Amino acid sequence: MAAVEVKKLVKKYGSMDAVKGISFSISEGEIFGLIGPNGAGKTTTLRVLATLLSINGGSVTILGYDLNKEASEIRKLISYLPEDAGAYKNLSGRAYLQFIANFFDRKDVFAMVQKGIEITDLGARIDDRVDTYSKGMMRRLLVGRALMTNPKLAILDEPTSGLDVINAQEIRKLVKSTAQSGTTVLLSSHNMLEVEYLCDRIALIAEGNIIETGKPKTLMEKYQARNIEEVFVRTVPK
Ligand code: ATP
After folding, report:
1. Would you state the pLDDT for residue 129?
2. Which pTM was predicted?
3. Total domain count for the chain?
4. What was the pLDDT predicted at 105?
5. Does the C-beta of 44 come closer than 6 Å to ligand 1?
6. Does residue 41 line the site of ligand 1, with CB under 6 A?
């Protein structure tokens, strides 16, 4: 069974087609990357899969559940890191993770928070208020929040956006090890080195259409490109 099956997905905002009938599937345990220029429809696609937007056409199946009919089942199995997420600023990092963990009707809430704290790797700063965190620290807290629940599917919108080299590298390692322990990952990124390193397969999206899907290596061979950035430049309409 595919973890994600998207068929001819259409999403409109008013009369504007943001996503124009895209199809792709993701296998369990795969890291799948969506890349494309600004306004291509990446965030819209991720928000649809995170059950936050209704769709105007096509179908989406996640872990065997139909998005239109079984969104509440899907929500129990996924985790979504929005592109521009924030946390409650007057809580400490630890209190924020505890607050989120308490929403889950699970016996392992304590272990969940411990795992979140480990992922954030914020050391003693985990007990400082969130409004004292740098952008990178905030992102780490939110990645910890997204992955502490051991989701079956993690949907990560630009997980390393705004992070310095070292922090970004740590998040990438974390995403990779998360996938190795069985979580399927769908992410978007503007960092072509990142997708080349992380993703088993990528989909290149432009103007609401998928123009290429495949393994980074296969796409580089197809376009006789040295890297994914060259594939991007050669395939995306100017
Ligand atoms: P970026 O790389 O800049 O984050 P993206 O690929 O994630 O871009 P989306 O945010 O999905 O692109 O936007 C796709 C299209 O839908 C754009 O034309 C955008 O202006 C439009 N759009 C996105 N959100 C809304 C909204 N809430 N209302 C109206 N139009 C929207």
Report:
1. 96
2. 0.95
3. 2
4. 73
5. yes
6. yes
